[in-house]
Amino acid sequence: MAATSNVTEIIFLGFSQNRDAQKVISGLFLLLYVAVLLGNGLIVVTIMAGKGLASPMYLFLSYLSFVEICYCSVTAPKLILDSLMERKVVSLKGCITQIFFLHFFGGTEIFLLTLMAYDRYVAICKPLHYTVVMNRRACGLLVGAAWGGGLLHSVGQTFLIFQLPLCGPKVLDHYFCDVHPVLKLACSDTFLVSLLIIANGGCISVVSFMGLLASYVVILCSLRTQTSESRRKALSTCASHLAVVALFFIPCSFVYMRPCVTLPADKIVAVFYTVVTPLLNPVIYSFRNAEVKNALRRLMGRKGCWEEK
């Protein structure tokens, strides 16, 4: 690390110190993690293979599902293995790496959700301009900007932690490394660093949430002039998106948009935005969509034909 540190490894307390409870936790999270991989992986494959899913909405959805897999993979495999170990240990470099990827994929997901709201705004409020505004080049640039925004956010958070001298205690009452728990290991005054961490995460959350809110306010206002069938279809799509946004933003806001203190509830809340949201994303956002379900049936039918041959 940039500053002198006496800590070379960090010990996680996890959810429980009871061996039987830890085995149950490991088995439960293994099932959840496999479900996340299969559900989101199936969405990515279906959209890539589906000929009728070439619109920007499905492009953003495929990237969101891919990011969900990566985001969950930052914490879940380590938790599953640690729950079977007597000592739950990670090196300091491994801890910093985990913080980097956690905020990289988390930041990217926030920007992708914002892009999806903008896509729905253009599709519903400016349908005649949709193909011009959301052309292939523009979509590529927007996706690239989402990845770039996630990278900048992650570099900022990681740098703030990286330059702190850590002297212990080297025990974290958590199951993965994150900025707030690691701040408790610092030897120096962390007031300014805490403010910068909140500002970094808070700016992204507030700006993105305001963008989401503005998009849906305009969408709801514009629906008054449309037919009942158009309103029903638009509200169904927007409701699915808002459900995913709420599942992700509310827990994240609870953890990151407050003073840098750790609470006993943080571990449970973290499960919602690192595991539960990736798990429910395919159910809420995709399997309720008729076009995705039809593409999935065609994909399964094609697989059945290959097996018969």
Task: Give the radius of gyration.
Answer: 21 Å
Mean of residue pLDDT?
85
Termini distance? 57 Å
The poorly predicted ranges are 305-309
Helices and strands in order:
Blueprint: E1 9-12, H1 19-49, H2 56-82, E2 89-91, H3 92-125, H4 130-133, H5 136-162, E3 171-172, H6 179-183, H7 191-222, H8 228-256, H9 266-286, H10 290-308
Parallel strand pairs: 1-3
Antiparallel strand pairs: 1-2
Helix pairs in contact: 1-2, 1-9, 1-10, 2-3, 2-9, 3-5, 3-7, 3-8, 5-7, 7-8, 8-9
How is this structure best described in words?
This protein has about 300 residues and is mostly helical. Helix content is about 75%, strand content about 5%. The chain has helices at about 20-50, 55-80, 90-125, 130-135, 135-160, 180-185, 190-220, 230-255, 265-285, 290-309; strands at about 10, 90, 170. A three-stranded mixed sheet has the order 2-1-3. Mean pLDDT is about 85; it is low at about 305-309.
